[in-house]
Structure formats: C-alpha cells, structure tokens
Amino acid sequence: NAGVTQTPKFRILKIGQSMTLQCTQDMNHNYMYWYRQDPGMGLKLIYYSVGAGITDKGEVPNGYNVSRSTTEDFPLRLELAAPSQTSVYFCASRTGTGNEKLFFGSGTQLSVL
Amino acid sequence: GEDVEQSLFLSVREGDSSVINCTYTDSSSTYLYWYKQEPGAGLQLLTYIFSNMDMKQDQRLTVLLNKKDKHLSLRIADTQTGDSAIYFCAESSTGGYNKLIFGAGTRLAVHP
C-alpha cells in the first residue's frame, strides 16, 4: 500500500522561483492537509481540503496556493519562494467521517536560498 | 487561542520508563493524540485518547489525561533504542474540519 506519497523529497530553490510540491493518496480519503514543520516548532496547517473542488486556508496560508481537482491529488504551489518558506512540508490525509488518524507522507525538505 | 506545549528533550536509559508530558489549552478538545516521528519520516499515530477517558493502555504505552489541568502524558515502559524519536502531542480542535493542533515535539533519546 502506497498511502500518502510526496514528491520531491528534497529541493533547493532560489528566492523568487516557483515550484509545486506534489501529494497523492490512494486510500480514497476525502480530507487532505498540508503542514509545514519548522525546527523546534509544531506542525502548522497551511491549507486543507474536505473533498475534490473544496479547499480552505489553515493557519499559515500566505505565499502558498492549492488545488484539489481529484480525490487523490492535492498539490501545494509556491509562487515566489522566500527564505521564510524554508521548512519541511508534510501532506496528510484522513477519511473524514469522524475521529480517524491522519496518514502522513514522508515529507519534502525545501530550502530557499 | 489553541496551544499545545511540550518539553523539547528527554533522555532515558534503555529499560527504564519514559514519561513525556504535554499541556493544552482547548478545554473543548474531543480527542488527544500522540504521534511518533522517526528521522526522515512522516508522523505516525501511536495512540489517542477520547476526552471523557482518563487513562488508556496499549502494550508498553500508557496515556494519562487530566482534563481539569489540561495535562496529557505518554508513558513508555521498558524503553528501547528503537523508541528514540520525536513524539508529538496533538489536540483536535472543534473547528469544522477537525484540525489538529500540534505541540513542538519532544525528542526522546535512549542510551545504553
């Protein structure tokens, strides 16, 4: 079982560049999330989606965009990369019918220089 | 606002018990969670407790919840080197999308 798959695992960007972090899940989960993890900090929610075509902002959405055209995919877009976006990014999913655990991808480590 | 706090580091000897503590602020949290993160990996759910319980045991893991003090703890019995990881406490918010609020994580180091 693949679960939640994120690509790439590592990326270095120059200031002002753009990129898309990919996330796909094969569990037919309705809810998907993007978190960022900064050193010594808890995970902060960037964006989430409760189903295809529905997205909404989390705690720290500035500088990011998302789309959810299919149940499986939830890409995160950085339009103008800034050093403050250097972080580890985690995608997660869950079924959405009650209390279920979040399934996490293995993360994307992004450095903006 | 909602907040979850944990100590950042804990060192224990192999075979001893580890106790990782967490405090939270949202008294309306319905579930509280413990996640484990190994190096280079995503978070994995270890265990969770419903807010109307005060204790849950699962093999070597014991979760204690003091709802009055908003204090959650995770006890790992007979700690092994494979338990070395970062442990995150999280609470579920009452928001419509059931957002999880994570603590900063406690790094557990197990030494011989």
- Judging from the principal axes of the Cα atoms, what is the shape of chain A? globular
Distance between the termini of chain B: 41 Å
The profile of the biggest β sheet of chain A is: 7 strands, mixed
Number of strands of chain B: 11
SSE class of chain B: mainly beta
Count of DSSP H/I helices of chain A: 0
Assembly type of the chains comes to heterodimer
- Specify Rg of chain B, calculated over alpha carbons: 14 Å
Largest sheet, strands/sense/barrel of chain B? 6 strands, mixed
H/E element sequence of chain A: EEEEEEEEEEE
* Percentage of residues in strands of chain A: over 45%
Uncertain runs of chain B: none
Q: Which class of secondary structure composition applies to the elements of chain A?
A: mainly beta
Q: What is the first-to-last residue Cα distance of chain A?
A: 36 Å
Q: What is the overall number of helices of chain B?
A: 0
Q: What's the overall geometry of chain B?
A: globular
β content of chain B, as a range? over 45%
| Integer average pLDDT of chain B | 89
Task: Give the % helix of chain B.
Answer: under 10%
List segments of chain A where confidence is low: pLDDT < 50 over at least 5 consecutive residues: none
Descriptors for this entry?
heterodimer, A: mainly beta, 7-stranded mixed beta sheet, 4-stranded antiparallel beta sheet, 11 strands, globular, B: 112 residues, mainly beta, 6-stranded mixed beta sheet, 5-stranded antiparallel beta sheet
